[in-house]
């Protein structure tokens, strides 16, 4: 009996070591890629200066931004890795080389991303901003440590302010929550704060994704010229969301929910098998790209668009925070719309608003409506542009508004060309 207990403990130890090594290798690769990306956009003059103190502060802040960006990339890859891992285990159920790919590894990866996302949003990024803007308290000795002290004090004041706002908001929404003590800070208030941030990210997705889709259409060209490739993923997304709306009305299991123990390799998360899972992965990444395009194309956030070798550190911090908010909301966004049936793992499934049927249903309806409207508008403008070009009205002087040209003139011009 003791021998069996020892073997079980050894197996658990080896599993934990293996999962730790895999997570470290994955995060190291993402960190290096993120560092190369930020190095491409950073303003070199801020890191090569005569002031050694400023250069050191900027380098430390850049390392924090690199960490945040790597967490954002890992959050984007959460669902694709989970879905593909399940399909690999279904395809090779008895393969010895695939035994490391299990539910414990995937669950641990989700928990690490949730933890590091909280750490980056609540502590690292505010500290990086205060650190770069601080100069030390008046009368104190100048140096890097003086800036650290000032940044820590400002961060503590900001944390008290945010926690006070969260406590008041939670007390207004739930009467019994006001009795929570500070001992529940980690178990309740921080997840509650992150739930609000995730809700903000999901709403940002709702606004940016349709705008990004229309922007991608205008960049890739007219739909009349290349209609077969550019709009297919969007049409598939809209159809899947409409199907999810019907499921929400008929089946309560379609509601997004959390899952504590993922059983990978048992069944496919798509009714079409591996092909459907591959389509889900493509759609998830497609929606993420379209949301990023829409975010940087919107008038409100257009000023954050990074420029090669000309992006200052404050803009880099703002970009990292924005991308982390979007990427950490991607799993919730995809599951809420029914793009995938993979349930949310760990603390991602503990968001309070996920269990509200009206919020989920209204969100699906708004996404389908806004995306369909963007498609219709894009097609309408493309048709109008082609008609103007075909009838030769694009050669009109700029002082003449093409929108004021009567329909009879368009018709007469078209008939004359036909004759």
Automatic annotation (TrEMBL):
InterPro entries assigned to the protein according to its UniProt record, in alphabetical order: LIMR, LMBR1-like_membr_prot
Compartments where located: Cell membrane; Endoplasmic reticulum membrane
A molecular function (GO) term: transmembrane signaling receptor activity
Keyword match Membrane: yes
Membrane topology: Multi-pass membrane protein
Keywords carried by this UniProt record: Cell membrane, Endocytosis, Endoplasmic reticulum, Membrane, Receptor, Transmembrane, Transmembrane helix, Wnt signaling pathway
Keyword hit for Cell cycle: no
Spans through the membrane: 20-39, 60-85, 105-131, 152-172, 192-213, 270-296, 316-333, 353-376
GO BP annotations, alphabetical order: receptor-mediated endocytosis; Wnt signaling pathway
CC annotations in GO: endoplasmic reticulum membrane; plasma membrane
UniProt family annotation: Belongs to the LIMR family.
Protein name: Limb development membrane protein 1 like
Source organism of this protein record: Anabas testudineus
Lineage of the species this protein comes from: Eukaryota, Metazoa, Chordata, Craniata, Vertebrata
Gene: LMBR1L
């Amino acid at each position: 009996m003791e021998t069996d207990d020892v073997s079980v403990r050894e197996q658990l130890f080896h599993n934990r070591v293996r999962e730790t090594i895999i997570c470290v290798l994955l995060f190291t690769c993402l960190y290096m890629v993120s560092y190369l990306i930020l190095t491409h956009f950073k303003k070199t003059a801020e890191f090569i200066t005569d002031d050694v103190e400023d250069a050191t502060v900027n380098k430390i802040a850049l390392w924090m931004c690199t960490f945040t960006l790597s967490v954002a990339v890992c959050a984007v890859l959460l669902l694709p890795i989970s879905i593909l891992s399940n399909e690999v285990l279904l395809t090779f159920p008895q393969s010895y080389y695939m035994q490391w790919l299990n539910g414990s590894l995937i669950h641990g990866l989700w928990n690490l991303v949730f933890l590091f996302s909280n750490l980056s949003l609540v502590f690292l990024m505010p500290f990086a901003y205060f650190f770069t803007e601080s100069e030390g308290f008046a009368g104190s000795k100048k140096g890097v440590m003086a800036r650290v002290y000032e940044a820590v004090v400002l961060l503590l004041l900001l944390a008290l302010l945010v926690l006070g706002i969260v406590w008041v908001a939670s007390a207004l929404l739930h009467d019994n929550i006001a009795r929570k003590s500070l001992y529940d800070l980690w178990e309740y208030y921080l997840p509650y704060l992150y739930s609000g941030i995730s809700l903000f990210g999901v709403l940002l997705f709702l606004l940016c994704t349709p705008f990004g889709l229309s922007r991608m259409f205008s960049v890739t060209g007219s739909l009349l010229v290349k209609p077969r490739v550019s709009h297919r993923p969007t049409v598939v997304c809209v159809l899947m969301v409409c199907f999810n709306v019907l499921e929400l009305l008929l089946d309560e299991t379609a509601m997004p929910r959390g899952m504590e123990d993922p059983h990978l390799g048992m069944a496919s998360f798509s009714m079409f098998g591996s092909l459907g899972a591959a389509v889900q992965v493509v759609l998830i990444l497609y929606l993420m790209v379209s949301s990023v395009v829409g975010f940087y194309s919107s008038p409100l956030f257009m000023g954050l668009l990074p420029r090669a070798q000309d992006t200052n550190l404050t803009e880099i911090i703002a970009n990292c925070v924005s991308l982390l908010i979007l990427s950490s909301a991607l799993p919730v966004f995809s599951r809420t719309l029914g793009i995938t049936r993979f349930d949310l793992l760990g603390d991602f499934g503990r968001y309070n608003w996920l269990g509200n049927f009206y919020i989920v249903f209204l969100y699906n309806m708004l996404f389908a409506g806004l995306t369909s409207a963007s498609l219709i508008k894009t097609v309408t403008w493309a048709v109008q542009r082609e008609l103007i070009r075909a009838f030769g009205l694009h050669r009109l002087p700029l002082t003449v508004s093409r929108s004021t040209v009567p329909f009879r003139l368009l018709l007469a011009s078209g008939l004359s060309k036909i004759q």
